[in-house]
Specification:
This protein has 747 residues and is mainly β. The chain contains 12 helices and 46 strands.
């Protein structure tokens, strides 16, 4: 069957508007037209048969078609960890032009990635968290690489103890991933990698006690635990003499590898004093090496990936951050163990916006000799925030797709002037990425934009209801028609930042809120931000800074100007404001950000798009009654009855349980019977908003409990409820007051 026949088959199977959407995919996957139909009707087919695709091992329903772990449309192409910043990263390749629920102006469909970690090489797993991004139908060159990141700090060991973990990343299109490491995605992928966790930098004495093998006197333990923490001493670089000895006189790691940093210094700045320092009468002579031999061996190497390799690059569209995944392949050759300074894997990023390569910056990750490096290597992540403000465009103009190059270089900085300059130790990788849509900014202007409100991407907040839906960008929760309450963190950027690290006058911004869009009030509360500095590929932490705005204007602290020897400054999590919403009325609010070069001059002002969101700081209201009276005495076999009620505009769930849990069946007036109370109280009676059909404003019910099989004892019935509010930008649900009804069962 040729392409024309396949297209005719597809036309008969699909509606006309669907056909145009998937035509590109049919051409690229010519032998699976039904495959595409099941992609388009994915959720409908799952509703008709939960095991339609044969992905559920525990369900006996026969599958209609077997589709499991299918990577036709999306695939995990890399996963790694940045041990110095505590970031898990995964790169997903979106491989087709259609099949993702709509064009760039639509909501598209979610691509979920959940991470699991194992401390025993896969024998057991712990759920770390889930992240996501939205995929769209985008025509043109494929694949497009997307990065997702999850902040996670694993427990740290002393530097004398290597800490290698196994990480599992699971990718699933349009279907959230259960917290089960054996989850089988229908459309998606599973990838296992190994990572290294950096050692402790701050010594807490309670950890010393915990890791001590000897039994210490109790009084001594308490005194040590109370002592202030101790900052670990700065790790030192290992000398070439020590490396020569560590590496077996060049038998384990050759001299032209471990001495490459010194040789590079000599080649790039051939001063007579440095030539003398490496002469045969000095270092090289003592090691039995000749400078000419080293220079010849190094010059013969170009793009060597024996020790490390750049696997892939992706763009986190929500945070405008490029990420690279680097594989460190061997246990030796990285200038020392975890108790030393180790060495750096540098990655320079270049972007082609259509007119040739533009240097976007260099970042790095510190690596070490890890004796227990597995055969598949250790996976490291390198990230680089990028200012796309002048290249962003509105979605109606189509998706902005650009080419990105990553250049990996061990131990020395890659070129910032020539994207084609080959590294000695390392390689380069080219990929395509998609820039998040938005209003662009001309050079010299300072258009601001808000990225997230309360942890949610602004595209996830309904512009009419002000309610949020979807997986949070900055925390591990999922919103479902959720308002916002508590501290609402607002993040974003301002275009074309001045070079404040070199003394340029900073920008000023204010964020104002309004209920009606007419009368506005600026946020003025002080809050703390944390900043990082990137200089020549090396990250360092700046002192914490207090943002204050008694006049309503905050000073912008970010500096994205790129130049060798000129540090860039990044605000952690891109925080613009922390809105303390207590005291503000529940309901719809509008947010607006304004930027000025001079606070008093409105002629030089720029405004970002308005964001509509809904506040709720009212917790659910609950009641619980027992018909025969609180603290009554009963006999086994008596029927206990009562009522409960929940009132909440954004009801999420309730729980009613018995403590201690010694059995008993609970019956609700709608004839729903819940199983016996288990050995431990785990909310056996519960209702939730998600998919249960209960009213979103709460519910009121009668309850009954047969005590025939309940052991004589004193009992407390405990009742509470939660709502769907995003609380303080970090989790879901204000909780009601907890209510108790006590009673006794007598022998």
């Amino acid at each position: 069957m040729d392409i024309l026949e396949l297209n005719n088959v597809a036309k008969e199977m699909l509606l006309t508007d669907q056909f145009e959407q998937i035509q590109t995919v049919i051409i690229e996957q010519p032998y699976q037209p039904a495959f595409l139909q099941e992609r388009l009707q994915f959720k409908t087919l799952l509703l008709t048969n939960p095991n339609y695709f044969g992905h559920l091992k525990e369900i006996t329903l026969p599958p209609v078609v077997k589709i499991v772990h299918n990577t036709t449309y999306e695939q995990l192409v890399g996963a790694g960890y940045q041990p110095q910043t505590g970031l898990l990263e995964a790169v997903v390749a979106v491989r087709q032009s259609s099949g993702y629920g709509g064009q760039i102006c639509s909501l598209g469909t979610p691509e979920y990635v959940r991470f699991f970690a194992s401390h025993d090489d896969g024998a057991t797993w712990e759920n770390v968290g889930m992240v996501s991004f939205q995929a769209h139908d985008i025509s043109g060159a494929m694949p497009l690489n997307y990065d997702v990141k999850l902040p996670y700090e694993f427990p740290k060991h002393w530097c004398s103890s290597e800490n290698v973990l196994k990480i599992r990343a699971i990718l699933s299109w349009n279907r959230p991933i259960d917290p089960n490491p054996d989850f089988s995605p229908i459309w998606g992928d599973v990838k296992d990698v190994h990572i290294e966790v950096d050692p402790l930098k701050i010594i807490f004495w309670k950890d010393v006690i915990a890791q001590t093998k000897f039994q210490l006197p109790a009084a001594f333990q308490e005194a040590v635990k109370a002592a202030p923490p101790l900052e670990a001493s700065t790790t030192q670089a290992v000398s070439v003499f020590e490396l020569h000895e560590m590496y077996g006189g060049g038998k384990i790691v050759p001299p032209h590898r471990f001495m490459y940093p010194e040789v590079h210094k000599l080649v790039s700045n051939p001063q007579l004093s440095e030539v003398s320092a490496l002469s045969s009468t000095s270092i090289l002579g003592q090691l039995g090496l000749k400078l000419g031999d080293l220079l010849g061996q190094v010059s013969a190497i170009e793009g060597n990936t024996h020790y490390e390799e750049l696997r892939t690059v992706g763009l986190n569209t929500a945070l405008d951050t490029l990420a690279a995944v680097v594989t460190v392949k061997l246990p030796n050759g990285y200038s020392g163990n975890l108790c030393s300074a180790g060495s750096r894997e540098y990655v320079a990023f270049w972007i082609d916006y259509g007119t040739g390569w533009t240097y976007a910056g260099t970042s790095s990750v510190t690596v070490h000799d890890i004796v227990h490096t597995p055969t598949d290597g250790l996976q490291y992540a390198v990230e680089m925030p990028v200012d796309f403000s002048t290249h962003r465009r509105l979605c109606v103009s189509g998706a902005a797709v650009v080419k990105v190059r990553g250049v990996l270089s061990w131990s020395v900085l890659p070129s910032h002037t020539d994207p084609n300059a080959p590294p000695v130790w390392g390689n380069h990788k080219d990929v395509m990425v998609q820039i998040k849509p938005g209003e662009g900014s001309l050079p010299g202007t300072h258009v601001p934009f808000i990225e997230t409100v309360g942890g949610m991407d602004i595209v996830q907040i309904n512009s009419t209801s002000g309610l949020a839906n979807g997986l949070a960008v900055t925390a591990g929760f999922t919103a479902q028609d959720s308002p916002f309450g508590g501290e609402v963190i607002i993040t974003g950027h301002i275009a074309n930042t001045p070079d404040i690290s070199q003394g340029a006058t900073p920008l000023y911004y204010r964020i104002s809120v309004s209920q009606d869009g007419i009368f506005w009030q600026p946020l003025t509360n002080a809050f703390t931000i944390y900043r990082d500095e990137l200089l020549d590929g090396v990250w360092s932490t700046l002192p914490a800074h207090t943002q204050s705005a008694p006049d309503g204007w905050y000073t912008y602290q970010e500096d994205l100007v790129i130049a060798p020897g000129d540090p860039q400054i990044f605000v952690a999590a891109n925080v613009l404001a922390r809105w303390q919403t207590a005291g503000f009325a529940d309901g719809i609010w509008k947010l607006q950000i304004e930027v000025r070069t001079d606070k008093t001059n409105p002629l030089h002002a720029w405004f970002g798009p308005m964001v509509t969101m809904r506040l709720n700081n009212t917790a659910p209201s609950v009641t619980l009654t027992m018909d025969k009276g609180e603290c009554g005495d009963f006999k086994p076999g008596d029927l206990l009855t009562g009522t409960y009620s929940v009132s909440s505009q954004y009801f999420n769930g309730l729980s009613l349980y018995l403590e201690p849990a010694n059995g008993g069946n609970l019956v609700i007036s709608d004839t729903t019977t819940f199983p016996p109370f288990p050995a431990t109280p785990v909310m056996p009676l519960s209702r939730s908003y998600a998919g249960s059909g209960v009213p979103t404003t709460g519910e009121s019910k009668h309850w009954e409990m047969n005590t025939a099989k309940v052991k004589p004892c004193g009992y407390v019935m405990i009742f509470g409820a939660t709502d769907r509010t995003i609380v303080s930008s970090g989790y879901i649900g204000f909780s009601s007051a907890t209510l108790y009804e006590g009673f006794c069962l007598l022998k």
